[in-house]
Each structure stands twice: as structure tokens, then as C-alpha cells.
Amino acid sequence: MPRQAQKALKIFMVPKFTSAAYFAATEKGAKQAVAELKGEGMAIDFLYTGPERREYRRRDPHDR
After folding, report:
1. 6 CB-contact burial (10 Å; exposed 0-12 / middle 13-18 / buried 19+)
2. How far apart are CA 39 and CA 13, in angstroms?
């Protein structure tokens, strides 16, 4: 019986903004982990996305 193709695990990372050193470090660590798991034969789709910088918006105190 032929083996079915393994469905890829989908991992999405969406930080508040990507330019912060902390979020850059989390991206690097996630990519290393994905590479290790792929090296063990695991199918993974990884997407890291988010705004480049923090958006400041003044909040209306009447909005809920």
C-alpha cells in the first residue's frame, strides 16, 4: 500500500512589529527549530510576518 504524503504543519508568527531585537531573536530561534524538525523529516510550512515598525494610534476613550 503506498504511503500517503504527510500534511505539512503550518506555523505562523505575527509579532507586534518585526524591527525590535526581541522579535528578530524569536524569528531566528523559530527558523532554527523549523530547520531541525525538517531535518528529521517533518513537513513544516513556516511564515513570519508583521508590520516593520510599531504603529501608534490614539485611542478614543469612548470606543469599546
Report:
1. exposed
2. 21
pLDDT at 1: 45
Q: What is the pLDDT of residues 12-53, one digit of tens each?
A: 999 988 988 999 999 999 999 999 999 999 999 999 999 988
If you search the block for the grid coordinates 513544516, which residue do you land on?
A: 44
Residues in the chain: 64
Residue 10 has pLDDT above 80, yes or no: yes
